[in-house]
Design goal:
The protein has 487 residues and is α+β, with helices and mostly antiparallel strands. The protein contains 20 helices and 13 strands. Among the domains are: 177 residues, no CATH class; 156 residues, no CATH class. β8 and β9 form a beta hairpin. It binds adenosine monophosphate and magnesium ion (MG).
């Protein structure tokens, strides 16, 4: 079915028009009985979309791709990608469509993208469907990341389609409306490069420069500057993941954006007990995407981007390689600077504190946490209490109390700023047991737990009475956590 959606917002189909080599015009499958499960009213308003319209039957047609708003021209985007290190030349949107671009209140464009909208020519053996649980999971975690100030794609809505989807059992299908600065991925550039059409590669790079890295466009070698800008954005992003205890779970090059936003929340999870080797994805058998490997994997993925961009960096191939290697060599320093600055903020260090004092305090704390496997999120929040003279909650999380006491004494001597700590150390994150509880309830028709969790994680730094269970670690009975590739 296809009709015209009446919303006052004007859609554009810029990517569809300008990149026909990488965009297949396509239509969503009909949703037999669309039902709105969750709507991001605040985000809708920022996009100039009327929440009441989106809730209406016409709005649900738009959110399932069953009515095409004026100006939009839905396409499945082509991209390639390295999945667990293996190159796949043709991935693309197998079960998603880019509806088009619209303006955000900040003056920049946003992609409106429908995930779970049916099979496309990129579907391979997939059924083109998405299941309600994993789409709500992306909604919860992406909105939590946004509230934590970590760059991310956003979630506008999840609509149940009324279609049953065959997984291990029959499960309810759903469409997630994802909002992103763009859906350009490292894999998009790998795809463009693989066509052998340098003109296409250059146009894609120009598009990325105008949408994401405008300052780089003014550089003498703007494509080198683009590579450098993506390297910086990703170094900063991955440092923020590490500081928040976030494990993405599937850092394939098709799941790494050019904008520096986190994308594709599949088998992701927030770590509870501190464990550098933490892996949650059931398919990540070798731990390639373990918590501690994320910076290395990001660097590896960026090297794939650099390879794709080589023909634009310099006419002489050797010089192009030298430029790429030089740019990539910046990643480690930038990552480490961003991580150190973030750790210092988490520990409430004041401006100008001597690095000879700050760095050993950080290193020793990380060693203590690793030894005690203390709950990552609540431990940092409890340190804020310790900075106010109430050491017991944090102390109780470390078996080596003598080691903790010695560390705290030295740390208190630098007068940590407790209020500043509370602004960066969250109380509420989407803990795995709470996410699972919310998804299970929603799947059986009860949206209460989902709404409660969304409310808690939307203001993660603001401790509120009555929300204690959202701040607590999983009960023992929850056991070790595994995610099953969130499809
Ligand atoms: P992801 O793991 O979600 O990043 O997806 C990797 C690739 O598999 C992308 O090309 C997706 O479009 C495709 N894909 C994932 N699930 C499905 C599905 N159920 N049907 C068709 N394509 C899918
Ligand atoms: Mg993906």
């Amino acid at each position: 079915m296809s009709g015209t959606a009446s919303s006052t917002v004007t859609f554009d189909g810029r990517f569809a028009r300008e990149f026909q080599e990488m965009a297949i015009p396509w239509r969503a499958e009909e949703a037999p009985d669309p039902r709105l499960l969750v709507l991001n009213q605040h985000l809708a308003t920022e996009l100039g979309l009327d929440p009441d319209f989106l809730r209406s039957p016409e709005g649900l047609l738009l959110l399932t791709g069953n009515a095409i708003p004026a100006g939009a021209s839905p396409v499945a985007q082509a991209y390639a990608g390295h999945q667990f290190g293996w190159y796949a030349p043709r991935l693309g949107d197998g079960r998603a469509l880019l509806l088009g671009e619209i303006g955000h209140a900040d003056g920049r464009l946003r992609d409106i993208h429908l995930k779970g909208s049916g099979r496309t020519p990129f579907a391979r053996n997939g059924d083109g469907q998405a299941v309600l649980g994993p789409m709500l999971r992306e909604y919860i975690v992406s909105e939590a990341m946004h509230a934590l100030d970590i760059p991310t794609t956003r979630s506008l809505a999840v609509v149940a389609t009324g279609r049953s989807v065959q997984r291990e059992t029959l499960l309810p299908g759903a469409v997630l409306t994802r909002v992103a600065s763009s859906h350009l991925r490292v894999g998009s550039f790998q795809y463009a490069r693989s066509t052998g059409d340098v003109g296409l590669l250059r146009r894609l790079a120009d598009y990325a420069l105008t949408r994401h890295h405008r300052a780089a466009a003014a550089a003498e070698n703007q494509y080198l500057a683009l590579l450098q800008a993506v390297i910086s954005a990703q170094a900063s992003l991955v440092a923020q993941w590490m500081l928040a205890g976030f494990v993405h779970g599937v850092m394939n090059t098709d799941n790494m954006t050019i904008s520096g936003e986190t994308i594709d929340y599949g088998p992701c999870a927030f770590m509870e007990g501190f464990d550098p080797a933490a892996v949650y994805s059931s398919i990540d058998e070798t731990g390639r995407y373990a918590y501690r490997n994320q910076p290395l994997v990001a660097e590896w993925n960026l090297a794939r981007l650099a390879e794709a961009l080589l023909p634009l960096l310099h006419d002489d191939q050797e010089q192009a390689v030298d430029l790429a290697v030089g740019a990539l060599s910046e990643f480690r320093r930038q990552y480490s600077d961003a991580w150190s600055a973030g750790m210092k903020a988490k520990l409430g260090f004041r401006e100008g504190l001597d690095d000879d004092v700050a760095s050993p305090l950080v290193d020793e704390l990380v060693a203590l946490m690793q030894e005690s496997r203390s709950d990552y999120t609540s431990f940092f929040r409890n340190l804020g209490k310790a900075a106010r003279g109430q050491a017991e909650p944090a102390r109780g999380q470390v078996p080596d109390t003598a080691g903790f006491d010695a560390w705290v004494r030295r740390w208190l001597a630098v007068a940590p700023d407790a209020d500043a700590m509370d602004r960066v150390n969250p109380v509420y994150i989407p803990r795995n047991h709470l996410v699972e509880e919310a998804l299970a309830a929603a799947t059986s028709g009860n949206l209460g737990p989902l709404e409660g969790l969304l409310d808690a994680v939307a203001s993660p730094f603001d401790e509120r009475p009555g929300l204690e269970r959202y701040a607590a670690a999983a009960p023992e009975s929850f056991g070790p956590y595994q995610t099953f590739c969130g499809t």
